[in-house]
């Protein structure tokens, strides 16, 4: 199969699937190595950008997806019903941040960090497809483990978790000190 035909096959697969497809599956479909397939996908991406096509090729942790170019979204919503918007409250953002940075994490771990019940927040994040169940912890009670989804990466415009901003170590120490001080004050107020 010549390269142009392989690119056409990759485009057809990505168009038909709608969601992202892992590099290994794409390589197997066109009977090529993952390295050669990645090269073809990179060429496709560059060609589409140069041609200013209406779609672009995006990679999410080793999986590829055909997407509408972001700057053309306004035209898309004129025809299609606007997707359901969800509001990420401070509580949801706080919970999502903990899951993103600590994953895989249990509900109890999230609650220990937040200091409050997090059932509703986690349920909403699962409903918004930003968080998913990853399995169960091998511990008494076999609690569920949670982690972020590919939709999380899309929503926040990152290709992988490694692209998430890192906390400055000085800030982290300040946060710890503030939390310990608050805990002492709460303990003193409650007579502990």
What is the residue-averaged pLDDT? 87
SSE string, helix = H, strand = E?
HEHHEEHHEHHEEHH
**Total strands:** 6
Low-confidence stretches: none
Helix content: 40-55%
Question: What gyration radius follows from the Cα positions, in whole Å?
Answer: 22 Å
DSSP strand content: 5-15%
- Tell the overall outline: elongated
Structural class: alpha+beta
Strand order of the biggest β-sheet: 1-3-2
The major pleated sheet works out as: 3 strands, antiparallel
Task: List strands and helices in order, with pairings.
Layout (H helix, E strand, L loop, with lengths): L2 H15 L3 E2 H7 L4 H17 L4 E6 L2 E6 L4 H7 L10 H13 L2 E2 H8 L4 H9 L3 E6 L7 E5 L1 H7 L12 H21 L3
How would you describe what is shown here?
- The protein is α+β, with helices and mostly antiparallel strands and 192 residues long.
- Helix content is 54%, strand content 14%.
- The chain has helices at residues 3-17, 23-29, 34-50, 73-79, 90-102, 107-114, 119-127, 150-156, 169-189, and strands spanning 21-22, 55-60, 63-68, 105-106, 131-136, 144-148.
- A hairpin with a 7-residue loop joins strand 5 (131-136) and strand 6.
- Helix 2 crosses helix 3 (34-50) and helix 5 crosses helix 7 (119-127).
